[in-house]
Fold:
Amino acid sequence: MHLLNKPTRLQPGDLIRIVAPASPLETHQLEPMQNLLTAEGFRVELGEHVLDRHGYLAGTDEARRHDLVQAFDDPSVKAIVCARGGYGASRFAADLDFAALAATRKFFIGFSDITVLHLGLNRAGLATAYAPMALSFTVERPPYVLDSFKQILHGRTATPADAPMGKAITGGTAEGIVTGGCLCLLTDSIGTQWEMDTKGKIVLIEDVDESPHRVDAMLTHLLNIGALQKAAGIVVGEMTRTDEKTDPGIGGVPWREIVTERLQGLGIPTILDYPFGHFTGMLSMPLGIRARLDADAGRLTYLEDLCE
Structure:
């Protein structure tokens, strides 16, 4: 993966558009993000179909694809924030011209199901931000979550001093471009044009509402195809509500034990419980730029700004 562009740094008064490429949400769930962005000095508008609802999707595939592409194509829009994840981005991803979208150098923010779009944009040459969405700020978060998000909005990548660190599975240090995202979407990307490229990368992994044996299965699949063996380092966030989904019929092992057992044999720097993903204390994590992983200290340090 050769990155051609970083997003253009936002300026006061720049226009940010909120779009919904995946699952639906209500008007009141957009308001905290709108208020936050406005307080940071930006103008905010909603995509045409952001409040549409089509079953478990935020509108039809064509409506969601239209809003996303139109936001990238509109020269007045400087950044794109996703409303929520859930499910749906992969339904139209094959119809996207990721190279054309990446060439706009738009600042793109989202996580969870939005992993699909991050992978495509990163492969096409645009750094992005795996970061809170509109729905994320409808619940209370630790102060460092807001601090981290504000840093990202302004193109900076320093980790707040009060954010917790991870725990080493395998010690050592590594440097590389950061990739990754939600585990089930990383696994689903295999064989697609946006398949995760792990060679020499620091790979981020997290997920939500997966049973422990499914976390095992997905990590095992990434190992079976040799993807994780190519990584320079691995940063595991939280597998949110995974232990609660243990199947009593087949017994259960806590997810942290599963992750440790699956990854410790790789012999590459790997940490667990880094604060990102589907849980209260989520950091904003740039993708597509270089970082240094110090597994012994449980620390990931970005080596460059996200924006130019």
Notes: The longest strand covers residues 173-182. The chain has two domains: 15-139, 167-302. Residues 80 and 249 are 44 Å apart (CA to CA).
